[in-house]
Amino acid sequence: MKTGSVRGASTTMYVDGATNQRLATDANSTMHVLFSDQSAVTLGPNSELVIAKYEFNAKAKDGQILIDLTKGLLRVVGGLISKKTETVVRAGTATIGIRGGITMVETNGPNTSGTFLFGQGMRVTDNIGNTETITRAGFGTSLGTNQPPSSPRRVPVSDLNNMLNRLETRPTGGNQGDLNPLPAPAGAPAGQLISTGNIPGTGNPGSTLANDRLKTLADADNSRNPSPTLQVLLGTGKPQAQS
Questions:
Q1: What is the pTM of this model?
Q2: Strand-pair partners of 51
């Protein structure tokens, strides 16, 4: 198994294919993983995952992404693969399938939560087959040992900001609400690295997130007043029907 870790900093890596690649962060670091299908994963502090499988057929624009989140916080931005096939995150007692959008997953082993930010949908299944599907931005579910996925619930803005802020790279000075620029890793394709299928102006919550690299989703300075992008996620425009 290939292993990579980050200590006291943030790093960006590019993945063109992987099997059983372990990645970990310490309390003061984050890691951004950019996949060749334009998917992106951000691993929060004190977190650990294994890229169990990543395969991508550039000609057919399909493949498979399977991630095992051992502990901590993870944000997944679906790319080309997720338009046809769910990106799958296995975390503790849950399996989370993500279609064409952004989802955050957090686990401590026995307990897992999934928060859907935007896109086509998030499907959460426990180990005996109980399932909840969420298609409305800003809603989530949680589950634990012998506890099936809860009914979809609106996640408080303060909780969303807290999770998003933990995932962002912070500058050493100046406006702490800004992201450090993320340089393109060697071998990474030019242009957009986020592909969610949203079209600006359609009224789909989160449509403004189809941009270059990783988007600032929340202002670190003021958790009471979410960033404009997060406000879009939480209700600007006509939300999709909840299932």
A1: 0.72
A2: 21, 67
Burial class of residue 10 in the structure, from the number of CB atoms within 10 Å of its CB (0-12 exposed, 13-18 middle, 19+ buried): buried
* CA atoms of 61 and 140, how far apart (whole Å): 29
pLDDT of residue 222: 35
Q: What is the biggest distance separating any 2 CA atoms in the chain, rounded to whole angstroms? A: 49
CB atoms < 10 A from the CB of 81, how many? 25
What is the rounded distance in angstroms from the CA atom of residue 63 to the CA atom of residue 18? Answer: 12
Query: Secondary structure of the chain in the HEC alphabet?
Result: CEEEEECCCEEEEEECCEEEEEEEECCCCEEEEEECCCCEEEECCCCEEEEEEEEEECCCCEEEEEEEEEEEEEEEECCHHHHHCCEEEEECCEEEEEECCEEEEEECCCCEEEEEEECCEEEEEECCCCEEEECCCCEEEEEECCECCCCCEECCHHHHHHHHHHHCCCCCCCCCCCCCCCCCCCCCCCCCCCCCCCCCCCCCCCHHHCCCCCCCCCCCCCCCCCCHHHHHHCCCCCCCCCC
Highest mean pLDDT: which of 109-123, 173-187, 206-220?
109-123
Question: Residue with structure tokens 């502990």?
Answer: 71
Alpha-carbon gap, residue 116 to 99, rounded angstroms: 10
